[in-house]
Write a structure and sequence with these properties.
alpha/beta; Rossmann fold; 13 strands; 37% helix; 17% strand; binds nicotinamide-adenine-dinucleotide; binds uridine-5'-diphosphate
């Protein structure tokens, strides 16, 4: 049992992580400014004495006493992180500095939720951790991509310079219950559109690929990384290597919902990566981890959740 801080704990992934940590008997402090997260996501956890919510913005210092920190605070969907790009960059960079400073003072282990976006529009496929990426510094995705890259740099510099015990994971597209139905990401958009009988919006020709990991698999990987051996800091890819085009995803969602929705094609957003698929050999070797839930099974669970949001 430990005292654990989860920043961004009221968000999609954070809420699942807080639940798992509390159920395993830990004391959890969830710090979130509720920009994209919601109290609804953590409603059931508020019955536990061992769970505490603090409304807090990670760009400001936080004074708490904990043994471990999971740093997840940052909007993750493109429309949300592009809404106020300067704030997004501040959240990644000042958030990392503040949480690393806290970890240093407390001698606490800290895990950073980094992203496959650090690979940008990748020229290596599938992506391995050694790949340095192909990222535009001045595009509309840069506030997120470069913010997360700078955060990784800060993590490794605090480790080298101040001996902070760091763990860095690179999360690939993750989906599941508690995603904000209106957050504009592809899985939530397609399911909500299918359930409402609206047109399914394919950006570009739909041939771009993504790899989708069900949230329970991801949380298992996060837990294992936090508990991983001393001396292993990552970065490590966490994602499901199954690779799908957006057209395949749309057709799968239509099939599973039995929807009569039609596909419509819309302009591809700037710098939208053409393909993405994790090489997870390192996670297998170091963490004994690989995803268990295939896309169809995960989509069925997610559809059930979104049916309650209509
Ligand atoms: P989310 O938007 O649902 O959750 C992010 C949470 O952070 C929200 O609760 C939001 O209110 C909070 N937040 C944002 N800015 C904050 C700030 N300045 N101070 C305090 N709290 C703040 O997104 P998510 O999908 O749960 O993502 C969680 C983390 O995982 C993010 O860091 C994201 O970059 C990373 N990630 C997610 C994915 C994915 O596919 N879901 C992929 C790669 C990386
Ligand atoms: N996308 C789409 N229709 C939508 C939303 C997204 O075709 O309604 C595409 C988007 O252009 C991208 C992929 O789906 O190629 C994944 O988008 P998302 O915003 O979920 O995450 P990303 O991996 O791009 O950060």
């Amino acid at each position: 049992m430990a005292r654990i801080l989860v920043t961004g704990g009221a968000g999609f992934i954070g809420s699942h992580l807080c639940k798992r940590l509390v159920e395993e008997g830990n004391e959890v402090i969830c710090a979130d400014n509720l920009f994209t997260g919601s109290m609804e996501n953590i409603e059931a956890l508020r019955d536990y004495k061992s769970f505490e919510f603090i409304k807090h913005d990670v760009t400001e210092e936080l004074r708490v006493e904990v043994d471990r920190i999971f740093n997840l605070a940052c909007p993750a969907s493109p429309p949300h992180y592009q809404y106020d790009p300067i704030k997004t960059m501040k959240t990644s960079v000042f958030g990392a500095i503040n949480m690393l400073g806290l970890a240093k003072r407390l001698n606490a282990r800290i895990l950073q939720a980094s992203t496959s976006e650090v690979y940008g529009n990748p020229l290596m496929h599938p992506q391995k951790e050694e790949y340095w990426g192909n990222v535009n510094t001045i595009g509309i995705r840069s506030c997120y991509d470069e913010g997360k890259r700078a955060a990784e740099t800060l993590f490794f510099d605090y480790h080298r310079q101040n001996n902070v015990d760091i763990k860095v994971i690179r999360i690939f597209n993750t989906y599941g219950p508690n995603m904000n139905p209106e957050d504009g990401r592809v899985v939530s958009n397609f399911i909500m559109q299918a359930l409402r009988g609206e047109d399914i919006t394919i950006y570009g020709d739909g041939s771009q690929t993504r790899s989708f990991c069900y949230v329970d698999d991801l949380v298992e990987g996060m837990m294992r990384m936090m508990d991983s051996r001393d001396g292993f800091s990552g970065p490590v890819n966490l994602g499901n290597p199954g690779e799908f085009t957006m057209l395949e995803l749309a057709n799968k969602v239509i099939e599973l919902t039995g929807s009569s929705s039609k596909l419509v094609f819309m302009p591809l957003p700037q710098d939208d990566p053409v393909k993405r698929k994790p090489d997870i050999s390192l996670a297998k070797k170091e963490l004994g981890w690989e995803p268990k839930i295939v896309l169809e099974e995960g989509l069925k669970k997610t559809i059930k959740y979104f049916e309650t949001k209509l």
